[in-house]
Amino acid sequence: MKVVKNSKEMLRISSRIKESGKTIGFVPTMGYLHEGHISLIRRARRDNDLVVVSIFVNPIQFGPNEDYKKYPRNLRQDRKIARDKGCDIIFCPDAKQIYPKGYATRVKVSGLTSYMCGASRPGHFEGVTTVCAKLFNIVRPDIAYFGQKDYQQAVVITRMVKDLNMGLKIKTMPIVRERGGLAMSSRNEYLSPQQRRDAAALYESLKEAKKLIRSGCRESAGIKAAMRRMISKKPGIHIDYITIADPETLRSQNRLGAKSLIALAARIGRTRLIDNVLVDCE
Ligand code: AMP
Q1: Residue among 34, 37, 125, 156 whose CB has most ligand 1 atoms within 8 A, to mutate
Q2: How confident is the model at residue 10 (pLDDT cuts 50, 70, 90)?
Q3: Where are the domains of the chain?
Q4: Distance 147 CA to ligand 1 centre (A)
Q5: Which protein residue has the closest C-alpha to ligand 1 atom 6?
């Protein structure tokens, strides 16, 4: 497995690969790899001739009071995991490689970014789309893999790729969960054992919502209230939002549609966690 830190070198390598007619599968990450990331790497391995994984904690997608500095990092461990799972190239630039002196360009998707995490984290998605646009230009993938865990991110990136004719495919893969149901996340590392147990209530509330829907409930307000009741049994969890929304437009639905996204964000201590499920009411 090759480790590349320089953007120009990465672009040279990916251009050579493309010229040889081989396909590139790309998994962009912020590192501290876990089974969620690994599921994307495995899928990329299955679908493509070569697999590139990027590890870059992107400063511009963090707000001023967020966890950029203390975001968990372990490049040595990530290199080993990526190599064992069949990655061919790790691209791990530093912030100066991606945003050199004089850097001035941003990519912004409007509309979709005004809801959910976009409302609670101003500027976050602009940071995400900007870095992904850059990474796509450097890595030149045929397919890039994203997780449903960050559902809004996947929708926003898909929109950007379409709107800007970027000529790659976005594949969104299912959420990988811990045994207790908590969605895997590098940020779970911040949680104490007690917080980790409590955090399972988030997925429990999503399962409760699915149960209510199966029993015929279609009013969003009632479902969201039931979810809140469940989560509030754990005093350490503060809900940022719970939404029931159209899975494509992300606009909230008062009544469930044929398809709905149920998504939430919550804080446990200083750790912000997100989760979601898609439901089919047809
Ligand atoms: P991150 O390193 O957190 O930026 O995540 C990199 C990619 O892995 C994103 O596309 C995430 O949606 C995806 N991902 C993170 N956690 C999970 C998970 N538990 N299941 C599936 N995909 C995930």
Answers
A1: 37
A2: very high
A3: 2-173, 186-275
A4: 5
A5: 29
**What integer is the mean pLDDT of 175-199?**
97
Give the pLDDT mean for 135-157.
98
* 80: CB partners within 8 A, 6+ apart: none
Distance 149 CA to ligand 1 centre (A): 6
Mean model confidence pLDDT for the chain: 97
Q: Is 238 a catalytic residue?
A: no
Strands (E), the chain: 2-4, 24-29, 50-55, 89-91, 143-147, 169-173, 237-245, 259-268, 271-280
pLDDT at res. 282: 77
- Strands 50-55, 89-91: parallel, antiparallel or unpaired by DSSP? parallel
pLDDT exceeds cutoff 80 at 61: yes
Ligand 1 centroid, distance to 219 Cα (angstroms):
30
Architecture of domain 2-173: 3-Layer(aba) Sandwich (3.40)
DSSP assignment, residue 111? S
The CATH number of 186-275, from 3.30.420.40, 2.60.40.10, 3.30.1300.10, 3.90.1150.10, is 3.30.1300.10
